[in-house]
Amino acid sequence: MEYVSIKNLGRTEYSEAWEIQKRFFGQLLLQKQQGSAEEQYLLLVEHPHVYTLGKSGHESNLLVNGQFLAKIGATYFRTDRGGDVTYHGLGQLVGYPILDLERIGVSLRDYIFSLEESIIRTVADYGITAGRLEGATGVWIDPHTPRARKICAIGVKASHFVTMHGFALNVTTDLNYFSHINPCGFTDKGVTSIERETGLKPSLEEVGQRFTAHFGEILKIELK
């Protein structure tokens, strides 16, 4: 069984967490190329207000300018993950698995499916029925209806089957911040959170523990 170390970064600026990701990602990739086994990680973090744009995204989906971002205390980054624009902020559980998928024995497609399934099972613990929307990565509620709304965004990067970036699950997130973007490029779908759907306000620590349990079970890895 593969072992993965959990590192809870707490509340950390996006730029700092990105540097940590890149360091661990580079170490794992180098060690893989040299034929030795480097440690794998799951980073859990809560970011202050920030908007990020994926490498294939469209900047037009960010609906405000830099002056407005400064006014609301938010920053903006172009990243090397997949996907379009999204928001990270307080009350949102963000996870960055840095894994060697070949060691774990899954394809990139199955890995993304496993991320989605782990979130689906996590929100089910709070009485929320969620699923997938064809052609749109992430986890959705009422996905095939006019009320489709995303509760978790997913965007990853992989090189030689080593992963970085990951997921952002809205727990008690202030959803008003999503009004300044077309989330993940969509103009006709909404966003939601565990709090919006249930009225509950679980801690990020609690939700993170539930996620890691499901993630480990699905991928057959031990997180410690």
Structure description:
This protein is an alpha/beta fold. Helix content is 30%, strand content 31%. The protein has six helices and twelve strands. It has helices spanning 14-33, 66-71, 101-104, 108-124, 194-198, 204-219, and strands at 2-11, 40-46, 50-53, 75-78, 85-88, 92-98, 131-133, 136-141, 149-159, 162-170, 190-191, 221-223. The strands form two sheets. Strands 1, 2, 6, 7, 8, 9, 10, 11 and 12 form a nine-stranded mixed β-sheet that branches. Strands 4-3-5 form a three-stranded mixed β-sheet. Helix 4 (108-124) crosses helix 6 (204-219). The longest helix is centred in the N-terminal third of the chain and has 20 residues, at 14-33. The mean pLDDT is 93.
Draw up the topology in text.
Elements: E1 2-11, H1 14-33, E2 40-46, E3 50-53, H2 66-71, E4 75-78, E5 85-88, E6 92-98, H3 101-104, H4 108-124, E7 131-133, E8 136-141, E9 149-159, E10 162-170, E11 190-191, H5 194-198, H6 204-219, E12 221-223
Parallel strand pairs: 1-2, 1-12, 3-4, 9-11
Antiparallel strand pairs: 2-6, 3-5, 6-10, 7-8, 8-9, 9-10
Radius of gyration: 17 Å
The portion of residues forming beta strands comes to: 25-35%
User: Roughly how much helix do the residues carry, as a percent range?
Assistant: 25-40%
Biggest sheet details? 9 strands, mixed
- The pLDDT mean sits at 93
Task: Name its key features.
nine-stranded mixed sheet; 224 residues; globular; alpha/beta
Please sum up the structure shown.
With 224 residues, the protein is an alpha/beta fold. Helix content is 30%, strand content 31%.
